């Protein structure tokens, strides 16, 4: 029977208790529905969109009397954000050998990056403040494992249908002039692969749903450990077998990506995880490593993938460009060592001639981006020593702070951060790689508070 008390409005105590809880949907919605956001043309734009309700929900809970936790070492990240803002003062500078522009012309890209850094900071704080009842670590691990599955499926799509692309609903809504801009198109136009001449003829390199092949490779390394952890924690042997099969399948798009940084990252990942297990006294990992190595060698030598690997190793076309851009970044760092230049710059022509440049028929032809070939070089060039120290200091502090966590989450989370230090030599972290780094950090943080049991 329904009573008058049941029909009465909830009292202050009920409302306060409800306001203190944080729903999981802002985080789960990003991860679970990311293929939908990509297809709609939202992609990475979903992060600032989701940050708005996250901020509101955090402030509401704070107003209800529940304290807001900040991640360990957060002062380092604050130093980085302050450096990013301070470096805007140098936005009008034109370092030698770069294309001259007004500060206002560079401001759009800077505001975009700053908004993404701020949005991902909110994601980190929000995820770290969720409780087991609101979003369990087990479920978050499964969501991240699902993102690895999405990454591999996107890679397979890029292999078999490299020319697949379509106009997204968001893209349809944009004015024609804006829609054709390369930067805008990279945000709102879904495509399966980047067609690039790396080994002598144009070949598709997997990119879906991350926009760029390098981002695809970076995310592959960051997300791979979570599939293993999710399979480890599952009770059924069928799921474990399925994970092993899927890992075997993932080798194909990883090789087809022609991404040497990815290959190095996976190797570093395996070595780090093995080292952590050996230090924990779990010597059985020493028996497993040769088996994994042998299976990978067999996959490469007994299939056409071996030819792809050899062709990539024989064609180092990007080496000269990377060396050129690293030299430019370091030269720029000496010109503004404290706060950098506020953003990247385009070089005058290519590495062999200053006469090469963009035209109406070829946007950005010949103009390389200083700071566009790795997060470390971008930090040094765009935000100087202050920004670099804050950024590296935050993740290095996390690795040190959580070094004693030998749980599956502890090893997988720290492994993701370790591979990110390798990746910053050739990959940029915005947007999704940094999001996954933050989610790994949040899992380590919550493990230190709630206990290390998955």
TrEMBL record:
Keyword presence, Zinc-finger: no
Superkingdom assignment: Bacteria
Record's keyword terms, sorted: Membrane, Transmembrane, Transmembrane helix
Protein name: Ligase
Transmembrane regions listed in the UniProt entry: 36-59, 71-90, 110-128, 140-164, 216-234, 241-256, 262-279, 286-305, 380-400, 421-444
Species this chain originates from: Actinoplanes utahensis
